[in-house]
Design brief:
Layout: H1 5-12, E1 17-19, H2 25-31, E2 39-41, E3 50-53, H3 65-68, E4 72-76, H4 81-86, H5 94-98, H6 103-106, H7 111-116, H8 123-130, E5 134-139, E6 142-147, H9 148-154, E7 161-168, E8 175-181, E9 189-200, E10 203-212, E11 219-220, H10 222-228, H11 235-241, H12 257-273
Parallel strand pairs: 1-2
Antiparallel strand pairs: 3-4, 4-7, 5-6, 5-7, 8-9, 9-10, 10-11
Length: about 280
């Protein structure tokens, strides 16, 4: 249980595994026999906390969504989902966080941990991908900045440590999150849609769309973005957008691949139009 990010990184470089809240890792370890196992707990490594700067946001204050728009948000890697849920400055993330597991689990699960859990989990990661988040990563050559989108696609080198996550807070009304699941609470995703979308004069000016549950990793729906951009946000346009990306849904205990593909257009429409 190191007391600094540098000490934690040194432990990871020896082949140890990082342990945040343990809500995913410990269930895996309990289900499988393991040999020489070493864990580096991040609990005391100084990687927790939420910082909101600029954009009219007052640190520590319960700002409005409009006031927080444009602010730079920094989440410590070991910040719990419960901490995010309870911070009034991050109210736009509440529907996402509250869709994840249960309150006892959210009190342990960490922000960075959610980035690396397999699908159909990782709903906060989908939201952060839609918000174009970047990661501060401590590696062999020091700290560097990595786009979350690249890390989702390629992973990180063994031994690297995510220390924080940064993104720009969305303006009021521009962030959408929708999760379809077998149960309302405490369930993996069938389809997750997260979007940051700006509409002006009845047309989509800009959009960034992330999908969960439709592949073994999170997807950036760049094809759907191209269809939506510059078009009116109508059911017909959204139906076209739903056909614009190659998805690779899978079978699991929550849903079949066929069902995921079948209902994706419905849930994309619900996420973007609310109906």
């Amino acid at each position: 249980m190191p007391d600094s990010a540098e000490a934690a990184h040194a432990g990871l470089r020896t082949g140890a595994l990082p342990l945040g809240g343990g809500t995913h890792l410990m269930t895996r370890l309990n289900d499988a026999a393991t040999g020489d196992l070493r864990l580096v707990s991040l609990r005391k490594a100084g990687l927790s906390g939420i910082l909101v700067e600029g954009g009219g946001a007052s640190p520590g204050a319960a700002t409005t969504l409009a006031g927080a728009g444009g602010a730079t948000v920094t989440l410590g890697a070991a910040t719990t989902l419960a901490d995010v849920e309870d911070d009034a400055r991050l109210r736009y993330l509440s529907p996402c966080v509250r869709s994840i597991a249960s309150p006892p689990v959210r009190s342990l699960a960490t922000v960075a941990g959610n980035l690396f859990v397999p699908q159909p989990y990782g709903d906060l990661a989908a939201a952060l991908l839609a918000l174009d988040a970047e990661l501060d990563v401590l590696g062999a050559d020091g700290t560097r900045r990595e786009p979350l989108e690249r890390v989702v696609a390629d992973g990180l080198p063994a031994g690297d440590l995510v220390t924080s996550i940064r993104f720009t807070a969305p303006a009021e009304g521009t962030f959408r999150f929708y999760k379809a699941s077998r149960r309302r609470l405490n369930s993996g995703s069938i389809v997750t849609v997260a979007a940051r979308i700006t509409i002006e004069d009845g047309l989509v000016r800009d959009v960034r769309l992330a999908l969960g549950g439709l592949s073994r990793r999170l997807l950036r729906a760049s094809g759907a973005e191209r269809v939506l951009r510059g078009a009116p946000l109508t059911p017909e346009v959204i139906a076209q957008a739903a056909e614009a990306d190659v998805i690779e849904p899978f079978d699991d205990a929550y849903a079949s691949a066929w069902y995921r593909a079948r209902v994706y257009p419905v849930h994309l429409r619900r996420a973007l139009l609310g109906s």
